[in-house]
Each structure stands twice: as C-alpha cells, then as structure tokens.
Amino acid sequence: MVEWIESADPVGYADAVAWMEARAEAIRDGTAGECVWLLEHPPLYTAGTSARDADLLDARFPVHATRRGGQYTYHGPGQRVAYVLLDVGSRGRDVRAFVQSLEAWVIAALAEFGVTGRVEPGRVGVWVDRPEKAPLPDGTARQDKVAAIGVRLRKWVSFHGLSVNVEPDLSHFDGIVPCGIAGHGVTSLVDLGLPVGLGDLDDALKRTFAGAFPDP
After folding, report:
1. Of the listed 126, 162, 179, 212, which one is catalytic?
2. Sheet (strand 44-47) strand order
3. Could you tell me which residues come within 8 angstroms of residue 111 by beta carbon, excluding any fewer than 6 positions away?
4. Half-sphere exposure of residue 4, counting CA atoms within 13 Å on the CB side?
5. Nearest CA to 201 among 158, 159, 167?
6. How crowded is residue 25: how many other Cβ atoms within 10 Å of its Cβ?
C-alpha cells in the first residue's frame, strides 16, 4: 500500500529534499514503504539539471539548484506539490513509462473537474487549450501550462514529482521562463474558472492514483 502524507504548513525546499533523500534510501533498503507526499512550498524557484541561466529573468524569490530533471520551475502557496516516492524497479523499470504514468495521473485528476489536460511533443508537463485567447504570432493556438513534472530516480526509486496550479499567484511565474518554454503561458484551476481548493485536488489525486499506478 502506498502511504499518503499531507503537510498542512508550507515546507522549506531544502528540508523537503533532505526528507525525500532519506525516505528514498529507506525504500531501497526495504525499511519503509512507497509514499506520496502532498505539500506546499513557500515562494521559490528551482533549477533542474537542464536549467539555462537565461531563463531566470528575475530572482525575486530564493533559487534552489536541484538534481531533478527539467528546467526552471516556480513553487509557492496555492500550488499542490506531490512528491512521488515509488519503487520503479518493481514497477517495470521503465523511466519513460513512469513519467507517462505521472502525466496520465494528472490528466485523470483534472478530468474530475471537467478540465481536459494534454501532453504535447517537445514540451514537459500538462497543458490546457485556451481558445479564448489570441493565438501566438506564428498562428499557433494558445495553450497554458497547468502542471509541471520533474523527477529523479536513484537505484530505481523515484523522488521529486509534480506540481499542479490550484490558485497560486500567477505573476510569480514572471521571474522565469517556466520549463524553458517561451510563448505559451501558465494557468491554474481557479484561473480556468473552477471554484476548487487544494483539498478538492487532493481528493481527485487520491481517487485517480491507482488507475495510473496499480499495485506492482
């Protein structure tokens, strides 16, 4: 059984990483079980292993270098972070399939609110169409990012995970080029007109988890 851990108060990034490192080691050693940790962070930026200096536009919040995959990401209040610590070694040993399962999990949770999330070739994360907004200068239809994904595996145990924008201050994303993708924007469930809170999303994530990650 996967353990669900929920933190009511914002968790500092360094503290979260230290906890994940220890829990991942315990999972590898067989002294702890798999878990999903639901939390918020105080406002901050993280720089993944592919982050480019030019994509940090305004370091208005603390910047944390991290060894997860991906580029620059914002975390802050109103955003649900789900750190996913699973034994991928017993779940097929397929990193690409694991990431696709994370994407499918988010998309299934969003569908519970009537939101159609999608993944796009060459872009990380989960996106939603915004037909009511003007297209990009090249005529490309506008899409906004609603969820980010960045993971790390060590000896086939995963940590880090994903974040879903419920009601963060979207102006905080202006300090970075989110995930290195210019042109398209960032949205949240509340920005899409949904009267939902973090608890509503948590319930949806719990209900849809087994569909994406059945017991090994």
Report:
1. 179
2. 63-65, 44-47, 72-75
3. 117
4. 9
5. 167
6. 15
| 161-206 tens-digit pLDDT | 999 999 999 999 999 987 667 667 899 999 999 999 999 999 999 9
Q: Indicate the angle between helix axes 198-212 and 95-111, nearest 10 degrees.
A: 130
Apex 71 CA angle, 81 and 206, nearest 5: 20
CA torsion 142-64-175-110 (nearest 10°) is: 30
Q: Of the candidates 193, 187, 195, 196, which has an alpha carbon nearest to the alpha carbon of residue 165? A: 187
pTM as predicted: 0.95
Give me the half-sphere count of Cα atoms (radius 13 Å) on the Cβ side of residue 139: 0
Is 179 a residue of the active site? yes
Extract the tokens encoding 88. Answer: 């991928």
Q: Please answer whether residues 56 and 175 qualify as being in contact, where contact means their C-beta atoms are separated by less than 8 angstroms.
A: yes
